[in-house]
């Protein structure tokens, strides 16, 4: 039997590279499926959502193979697959979707009704998302391949831009979805909460959509410096000055047209005394304060139904102290949920291939080996301004 290795969550704060089973064309229940393919993983990314599990902030079990951001080469094709062949290079949306249910047909692939017996929506290597094996590994199986996979039109051209194209599996469509649902368009003023990879992807997407001014806020000075270096305005939320005051200095107006939450449930409070105090609703409440009346707020940042690491009982159940009255009074529209990657990934692929978007530079892609993945997790958790991309087979080093 062929060998396989992957990144395995072993306990709070710890991942290991372990030998894992070589994938079969089976679903999580062990039933044979012929609509899937087996991929040789070319690149697979470490995501902030992975960090939530590794920090012990979910109910993820020890032994889970991590990884939902996958780009790979088709090695084996099930007999029901019609549009893909061995050797194709493909991007894998992090959503596992059947393409047949009502929500998939309506392009809401983040909440597929068929791939997870416990709730709507499936994903690779993620807690409560259907049991699909993660792709931070040498090989992985992808079901419903004809529907799920985005094939690159030219392998050589794709490999030349693989550091950018690897972002198509999650963070770039997620940032773009946040910008679209926030109503970003030509001439708009935009505030992005969070200068991590998804925040920078949202900022890059706002630029692609024609925003006039894009402001990124964070408490991490290194990440803020990187955001400035790639052309965005910034606000430092560790300062005593309020968010509205800092936005006013930039715009001459304390409110923006559009706001995007790219932080999620592990948000920290603002100001010197509160910057290290966890306050799960702090970002959402601040966005309602600085978004104009009738404005929209996109929320690609992750919120969970169960948070065993939360500091209070309500937050452990996913309940937040949200100022909904403020949002109601200002007639805000808030859009939540997992990104339906396939709604955007083909167009974003074209933007990359035709040099309209250099997302790898913006989010700070750094390619590492599979053996270096635990170190990458540690550096990312410490706030490095990087997007760590694992290359399990050295495919990028040969080019």
From TrEMBL:
GO molecular function, one term: formaldehyde dehydrogenase (NAD+) activity
Enzyme class, broadest EC rank: oxidoreductase
Keywords, sorted A to Z: Metal-binding, NAD, Oxidoreductase, Zinc
Top-level taxonomic group: Bacteria
Record-linked InterPro entries: ADH-like_N, ADH_Zn_CS, AlaDH/PNT_NAD(H)-bd, GroES-like_sf, HCHO_DH_non_GSH, NAD(P)-bd_dom_sf
This enzyme's EC code(s): 1.2.1.46
Domain (Alanine dehydrogenase/pyridine nucleotide transhydrogenase NAD(H)-binding) ranges: 183-236
Keyword Acetylation set for record: no
Cytoplasm found in the keyword field: no
Needed co-factor(s): Zn(2+)
Sequence ranges assigned to domain Alcohol dehydrogenase-like N-terminal in this UniProt record: 35-146
Similarity field: Belongs to the zinc-containing alcohol dehydrogenase family.
Name of the molecule in the record: Formaldehyde dehydrogenase, glutathione-independent
Organism whose genome encodes this protein: Herminiimonas contaminans
Gene that produces this protein: fdhA
